[in-house]
Amino acid sequence: MTDFLNLNIGSVTDAYLRELAQQNHHARLRIQQMEVLLHTVQAIGQNVTTLTDIFAGKAIEEAKANAAAALKIAEIANGIRVENRYRVRPDHTVVDEDTGLMWMQSPLEGSFNFEQAQKAVEDLNAKGGFAGHHNWRLPSQDELESLVVVGIRPAICPKAFPDTPEVDFWTSSSSQSNRSVSEQYFVDFGSGETYGKYEGIENTKICRMTVRLVRFFRNAV
Question: Domain 85-216 is in which class?
Answer without folding.
Answer: alpha beta
